[in-house]
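Before a colleague's protein record goes any further, I have to sign it off. What it holds is a sequence and that sequence's fold in token form. Would you go through it and say whether the fold makes sense for this chain? The record follows directly below this note.
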Amino acid sequence: MKTVILAGSSGLVGSLVLQNLLLDSRIEKIILVSRTKQDFDDPKIIQVISSLDLLENINLADYGINSVDVGLCTLGTTIKKSGGAAAFKKVDKDFVIAFAQFSKKCGAQKFGVISALGANSQSSVFYNKVKGEMEEGLRPIKFTSLFILRPSLILGERKEVRVMEKLFIKLSPFLSHTLIGPLKKFRGIEANRLASHLTESIFNDSNGVTIIENAQMLTI
């Protein structure tokens, strides 16, 4: 029976991860860390309301939790939604690393995170560079197991409207037929498939850093 701490449960992938956790009999408790209270009525769920830059003020013992087994992070935004490049970097890099550190402090030996295809701290593409810096920031935390998932375009209905993303999602079925061979790795991935891979990382016994690329997730 596992106790999981999750950040990003209100987003597209995070909400699906949460559904998976609720249905899995191997999960005993799910600690949701978010800025606002969500409408849940399930004995498995414990909600911790906090900004991710104030995690040091949280004591899980106040919620009846002594330690956690696994941390999962599905945080992610866009430059437009966050309000600029600096704010985007704060969410997609700084908050992710802070949450990972907090998870480790709470006892987690395993951590799973959504990154992105092409993540590289040396990239000239700002988005990929930030994701790469985030990945590098997680490594020194020294989890027994660190799972980094690198999806391409995530397909699914979001609460907020992302015009260009919505266009690509509509075109995705047609583009998939043209993205073959080496280009197959760029195909979009359904949010529920990505969520399943992140959820299953909880029960993967691999040690060290495991990077799961988009093409691999499409074939399993």
User: Anything to note?
Assistant: Strands lie at 2-7, 27-34, 45-49, 70-73, 110-114, 145-150, 154-155, 189-190, 208-213. The first strand starts at residue 2 and ends at 7. Residues 2-219 form a domain with the Rossmann fold fold (CATH 3.40.50.720). Residues 16 and 149 are 15 Å apart (CA to CA).
